[in-house]
Amino acid sequence: MRTLRIGTFSPSVVLGVATETGALGDAALAITQVPARSSPEQFTALLAGELDAVMTSPDNVLAYRFVADNPLGRTSDLRILAAVDRGLGLSLFAAPTVKDIDSLRGGVLAVDVPTSGFAFVAYELLARHGVRAGIDCEVIALGSTPRRAEALIEGRCTATVLNAGNDLRAEEGGCHRLSRAKELGPYAGTVLATTAEHEEEWLAALVRVIVETSARLASGDLHECASSITGKLMKLGDEDVRRYVQLLTDPEEGLVIDGRMDQEALDTLVRLRMRHHAGSAGLADALRRDPGLLDERFLPGSAS
């Protein structure tokens, strides 16, 4: 049995279900989910060998593979092994006292870090309504999605983007969902990623378990197990558990059944990054020169 340390932002229901059903055990794997306080912290730990892999925004992988002007100030040979979900409800949220996007003027937008990840979704959704992040509202770094949800509920920021059950907790706390990331086009919310140095045997087993478990969940199978795990990991009430488990099956925002990153979703990520980060101006060209971002060797149906 090999124990893997997997960095996560929000607790992974897919990994929880894979553990509960015995799928990980059958693959001779055990998982420790290591919560990240921020994406720079998560990738620092991954590059230092303190994590075996991460479940993260694919934009973070773009940043730390291609963009020298990233929070760590260096690039590394990082690979996306599988797409996991399409955002799981990723949306722009406002504090309980704010009723519409225009009211965010003069407020505070909380992000993980200002130059990667879901921050670009927030900037674009605001821009579509004439609100310029950093000009019409202040941008502050508050770290991971669960931390931002807590800050929004407590009124320590005016707006942020939330998903993966944190959005449901925010609604329960009186916050308002203003717009959804799916309005921007096909999107990938979470991927499994690691460095080039890790062993192929356990990578293949891990990818297989994640893809197979995701496919079963997306089909509506494992409903009872998914509900139990969601309740435990997310600390949601019964109605929010029902909504979250239903979201897993949604073709626009739910789980990816085959683990493959859609080209359209990758295009959305690249477009957002190039539009909202000056240091990413050459990203599209870099992707064409370096096809190694997507490592699909371990996905079902791929040639080994």
Automatic annotation (TrEMBL):
Compartments (UniProt record): Periplasm
Main location: periplasm
Keywords for this protein: Signal
Record GO cellular component, one term: periplasmic space
Regions crossing the membrane: none
Signal is among the record's keywords: yes
Keyword Protein biosynthesis (UniProt): no
Similarity field: Belongs to the bacterial solute-binding protein SsuA/TauA family.
The protein's name in its UniProt record: ABC-type nitrate/sulfonate/bicarbonate transport system substrate-binding protein
